[in-house]
Structure formats: C-alpha cells, structure tokens
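User: Can you model how fe (ii) ion sits in this protein?
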Amino acid sequence: MISPILSVPRDGPAPGAPALVDALENGAVLVFPDLDFPLDAFEQRFVERPFADGKAKNVNIRGAAATLKGAAGSPEEQERLRQVLIRYRTFAQALVDRYLPAYTGKVSLAGTSYRPFDVDRRKLSWRRDDTRLHVDAFPSNPIGEKRILRIFRNINPSGQPRLWRVGEDFASMAEKFVPKLPGYSPLSARLLAALRITKAKRSEYDHLMLHLHDALKQDMAYQASAPQADVRFTPGQTWVTFSDLVMHGAMGGQYMLEQTAYLPVAAQADPERSPQRILARTLGRPLQ
Ligand SMILES: [Fe+2]
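Assistant: Here's the modeled complex, given as structure tokens:
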C-alpha cells in the first residue's frame, strides 16, 4: 500500500472521516491546504534569496534559547529570520493542539528549520541525497523509543510546488530489506557513545533504521521500481507526517519551513503501529 495523502480543511475533518491521529499512525501524510502563516513586508526577503551561510543544508534554531545556526544577512535580518522560525514553532505547536489533541503535552518540539535551497541544485553524496526514497534516521542522535513527527510548510513566493515521492508502507518495505541488514552489536554501540560519535547509546532500533536508510538509498532498482506516487505541495500548504514511518523523497522545490517533533512510542494511540514494533514483528522478537 502506498502512503495515503489526506487533505484536512481548516475546520477539521468532516464528521465520519478517519480520525487524524489514526491516519497519521497508519502512515498517512496530512495536508492542510489553507492554514495562515503570513510573512510581513520585511520578511518577504527570506523567500527572495537564501539567507544561509551555505555551509549546512539548512538554517535552524534549537533549544529553549532558539539559537540561530547557519544563517546569513545583517544582524537585524538574522534576528528577524530567527523570529520567523520561533513563530513557525508556535504555529506547529498550535497545529498539534488543534488537530492532534491526543498528542498535546506528549509531543516535544525539537529543531525548527528554514530550507532556502532548491532541492535539485544541491548534488550530494548518495547518503545525503534526499531525492531517494527513505525513512528518516539521525546518525549522531539516537532516537530509541521516540517517533519523528514533522510539520512542513511550502513558503515559495512564485508558485513553485514542493515535490515529493511517497513510497510503500513501512512493513512491506521492512520485509524486503531487514533480512539484508547487518546484525546489531551492543558493544560497538557502547563504543560509539564512549567516543561521542553518537550523543547517546545507539539502540538496536537506531542501528536498524540507519542501515535501512542507507540500504534504501543505495538500491537503485528499488528506487526506480518500488511502489510510489508523486505528490505536489503548493505554496501555502502545510503537511504533517511521521517521517520515520512514511517512505519519502524530496524531488524539488525551494523555500520551506520545517518543525521536527518527538513523540514517545508509548504516547501513540497505538504503539503497535510504530516502526519500532513493526521491526520487532519483522524480526519475530523484541528489539534489544
Ligand atoms: Fe527525509
């Protein structure tokens, strides 16, 4: 089954429509076509040219202090860009509270990013090439028993859509790839943490997700022939998905905002639908 795209009007789903949390946990992408996030006259410049130092892929704020990283521009411009990101973080929290109230108080917001570069123009190594279908995994930041929920918004000023591909459901993908992955070594996971290559000890889940991410991106036959569908997110649209569960590739588009949030597996409506539990079922045993 290919991940479904579910459009959600501003007033919320129609009576009788599937509950949004259920749809999300089953691997849907929720699209909100008409939520407001206006940029003022000063802020328009942030979608006219990239205010980025070009060293990192994105500009972002982190933590309670909302320290800005990777930005370019005058001190005033950088402060205003930081304010846009803080406002977007508030917008994302409000979206969760309004449309996913079951997660309120359980979701924790992490980084907020401004992505000013055209996807196509940045030719990266295969591992960092996000045009290839993948699920998200963070090499240096073990996730353990958390889920990655992401809230994206296309802020392109000239009508350019954000183009994605979405792929097949996680369980079908895992059946094909998990048997090929190298086994987990708790010893080397401890070593990586001791050497501070990872910020915490990599669990078996993190190990599997990193190797899945790489195996998927390296398999060009799978990339070309796996079940998939093209999706267009037009400017002004906001979309929300579990990016650790939904196979996706970013094929094009420029100027986007993104909020990453973490949700404990135990806080899901149904933890059995997490990639953690799906991988355990694929292996036929609990993960270490
Ligand atoms: Fe991704």
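A couple of observations from the model: The chain is about 25% helix and 20% strand. The pocket of fe (ii) ion is lined by residues 130, 134, 136, 243, 248 (CB under 6 Å).
User: Helpful, thanks.
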